[in-house]
Amino acid sequence: MPENRVMRRTAKKAGTWLVFVLLGAVGGFLSGVQPAWGFHEQGVASCGGCHIMHSTADGFEVVLQPGNEALLKGPSPSDVCLLCHAEGPLAVFGVDPLIPPPEKGGGNFVFLLEDNLNDGPDGMAEPIAGEAAGHSIKAPGFGLASDPRLSLSPGGQFPVSELGCTSCHDPHGNTNFRMLNGDGLVQDDLFSFVFPAPEANGIEMGGGSESRTNHTAYRSGMTDWCANCHGRYHQQGSTPSAFEHPSDRALDAETRNHYNFYNGDEDPTGGTPATAYLPEVPFEDRSVTTESTSGPGPSARIMCLSCHRAHASSAPTSGRWDFNVSLLSEDGLQSGSYPIPDPYGGSSQGPLCHKCHLPIPD
């Protein structure tokens, strides 16, 4: 195991211990699985779960850090979120980037601790550090720092140094999907969103892993919401990216037909529309449910999260698959990082772009 990876994991574990012991864990409340809506919408003991209510917490004297006017039980808002969401059934982080927690749809921040994500031909010579795995939230107690390569969100104006869980989620709860921030001022008036939260339903955080019959149901508005920070990043004619691709458009008949009958590169036309849905390549549709298995219909649309995870993944740019590999079986070989599971199997499966696009002949 590379020394960097060991050091980063050790720092993370040490940071977690400091957060729980020195700042005071939430005690017995955290020992059970609590639904997020009850905790964040003023459920029993919810205020004390995140905020210091007195000068001691769980028998430990609490020393407030400078700048902690919100009386948080952690060195940053994201550290407080990770008290519940780092490990256990509610985890979106984990312990080891090679053994991530079960996928619940958004991806896991633990991949930010990786030392190399590059599985392309130059993977060993040109390593891609973990901050490229997705949204580099600032959570020093868990070994997470802001992305040193950027000052602003790609395609937008959000200050990267201030990025945290509460940049996207309302810690006090709202009625939006995953408590996402809506239009208006966010994060203590640091930034303003133009677009409202998307319409979607998610699977239970304390339940099973994402699957073809248990997955996020994206309905509308996701690309607009991402544009609050990233603009139309890949849109033709206005993109700051060298790669142009539709990100908010109805799927045409040819694409829908290909998605519905594609069953992997070894069986490209053997699928059926009734069971075509692939959670690794989701689409937006108002008729989608968390249990639906049908492929796209006439109202289906592509969106940002058709290709990217919202949090992070074991691939650069939070890809749902590694965009740098020709075959999914190559993922993790050069870098030693977590190999993203192949939903089709077989050694000759190409990238999941093929779910919508015909493979280009060699």
Write a concise synopsis of the structure shown.
Helix content is 17%, strand content 6%. The protein has 362 residues and is mainly alpha-helical. The protein starts with a helix and ends in a 60-residue tail after the last strand.
What key attributes describe this structure?
362 residues, mainly alpha, two-stranded antiparallel sheet, two-stranded antiparallel ribbon, 7 helices
Can you offer a commentary on this structure?
By secondary structure, this protein is mostly helical. It has a domain of 192 residues. Helix content is 17%, strand content 6%. Strands 1-2 form a two-stranded antiparallel ribbon. Strands 3-4 form a two-stranded antiparallel sheet. A two-stranded antiparallel sheet has the order 5-6. The longest helix has 19 residues. The chain is globular, with a radius of gyration of 21 Å.
Which class of secondary structure composition applies to the elements?
mainly alpha
For the termini, the CA-CA separation is 36 Å
Largest sheet: 2 strands, antiparallel
Largest sheet strand order:
1-2
Number-wise, the strands total 8
Give the helix proportion (percent range). Answer: 10-25%
